[in-house]
Amino acid sequence: MTEQLRTDQRAAVPFRCDHCHYPIPGEAERADDGDGHFCSTACKEAAEDDSTMPEPDAYKRVVTGIEPLDSLLPNGIPADAFVLLSGDEGTRRSELLTELVWRALERGEPAVVVSYANPPTATLERFFQNGWNVLPALEDDRLTVIDCFTHRLEDRDRFLETQTEWTNFVGEAAADALVEVEDPSDLAAVASRLQDVLDDREMSETGIVTIDSLDELDSLLREESVHNFVKDVRATVCKGRFVPIVAGATTAGTDPYPEAEYVFDGIVDLRLTDEMTPNARLKQLGVRKLIGAQFLPQWVTYEYEPVRGLFAFGPSTDAREVYENAGPVPMQERPQR
């Protein structure tokens, strides 16, 4: 009886295709030499041509490494997703974007930051402020910054002349990793430069792209142009390469792009609330939508501290202890010049 039950259980589990690795819904096709099971003729012929696909979860899912976000995403973020971080000012949205890049670098993956809100040296300084040394990643082409800020300055030379010694050092060390866009309002050119960078870095089925501020794009261009840009890079980068894009936008009291949420595969909301603790505005994170992924429909309370990054804590935690324990980055952990 026990042996019969085991046989029935095995029969209930479908074979997985030896090429695409997905379950075979019907009768399997066998290889001509009898070695291998395939879901379709296409997979059988591809295998005969010595084509091998990696396991889907190896490149189609991304576990970010950020505690409060991962706690809501049991299986990670789909790698073909364009995700919007929609948050109030003061919710550490910029730190979350920075940490997404850092965690990818820690995994040995490449990353591209599209910077509209800050000059590239300021973008890189966010990593150093967190105690994360990105100089090696800049040197070995794992981190690239697409500069959509500098050419918008009225007096670019004056800006460069007033930089500090440290800023000049970072700029020189990162020179080969900085890609300037002369006309950041030309979104077709921005999308083209992004594709060039991804080609140069061989970014396909690996890595992440972040865009620091869709608000800056809105201030430069009509909303329709921004939506078209999002749809363009979503198709060519996320869907075409399985490289996720995460972009930030402030709610400023209202939901950004309320009539165009369909252009985003996922929306993560960041908010400030004083409901849990009197006289304290706590930060909370929730996933509003994420196509193709399971997520928990709840809010997670979180805070940030240097080196550690964003971390979650529960309602029974004394909020005062959380803030008292968060301190500055020790000087010995800062990269030395």
From TrEMBL:
Which InterPro entries does this one have? KaiC-like_dom, P-loop_NTPase, TRASH_dom
Alphabetically ordered keywords of this record: ATP-binding, Nucleotide-binding
Which Pfam family is one of those matched by this entry? Answer: ATPase
Chain ranges of the TRASH domain: 17-51
Mention one GO molecular function. Answer: ATP binding
**Highest taxon, organism lineage:** Archaea
The name this protein carries in UniProt is TRASH domain-containing protein
Q: Which organism is it from?
A: Halopiger xanaduensis (strain DSM 18323 / JCM 14033 / SH-6)
The major lineage groups are: Archaea, Methanobacteriati, Methanobacteriota, Stenosarchaea group, Halobacteria
